[in-house]
Amino acid sequence: MARAGATAAAADLSYPIGRVATMTLDHDLDGHATTRAILTRREDAETCADPSAVMSLFADSAQTAGAFTSYRSTFVEGAPGAPAHFHTHAWEMFFVLGGSLQVLLGEEVTVLHQGDFLAVPPGTPHAFRAAPGSGADVLCVFTPGMDRFDYLRLLGQVTRGEESPSRLAETAERFDNHYVDSPIWRATLEAPE
């Protein structure tokens, strides 16, 4: 049930062009958090880049009251993606906008193609990379949200040699990113293309 005036407030979604719109947090009569829409224009999204990928940051947990985190990852052909890992609290979702993404899901390796969707539950080891012979353009969503943008910034710093790789292990709890060994994924990466 919405509180009085909610319809009028929800209708006011005019945002200045060229800015990331911020949301307001309110509570309805039942005490549930409600928010305004979040609009991130492509040209205004912060980007994190390394030689193999560009991440466009759309909405982090601070903007969504912890509901979700969302960003777009565009991988060049042969991009390594993420090693085997799991999250203890969040679902990680992938929607392939273009190209193909090779994914480890538990003990199985599969390829997602344009239009495919995958939701990985907490505790499930997974990994991903651009599929052999393809780039990949992927919308990623975590729910509940977590400070993923700080992790992506750190990852870029590690890739560029500005931070030690040990920082990734040191921040595993903060970012709910726990690396694991996967012989299946290792064999997949070592297989000739």
Order of helices and strands: HEEEEEEEEEEEHHHEH
- Low-confidence spans: pLDDT under 50, at least 5 residues? 1-19
CATH superfamily placement of the largest domain: Jelly Rolls
What is the molecular shape? globular
* Largest beta-sheet details: 10 strands, antiparallel
Query: Whole-number radius of gyration?
Result: 18 Å
CATH topology of the largest domain: Jelly Rolls
Architecture per CATH nomenclature, i.e. the level-2 architecture of the largest domain: Sandwich
Average pLDDT over all residues: 86
Helix proportion = 10-25%
Ends distance: 55 Å
Beta-strand segment tally = 12
CATH level 1 class label of the largest domain: Mainly Beta
Strand content: 35-45%
The number of helices is 5
Task: Kindly give the count of domains.
Answer: 2
Class derived from helix and strand content: alpha+beta
Domain Cupin type-2: 74-142
Protein name: Cupin domain-containing protein
Organism: Actinacidiphila glaucinigra
InterPro entries: Cupin_2, QDO-like, RmlC-like_jellyroll, RmlC_Cupin_sf
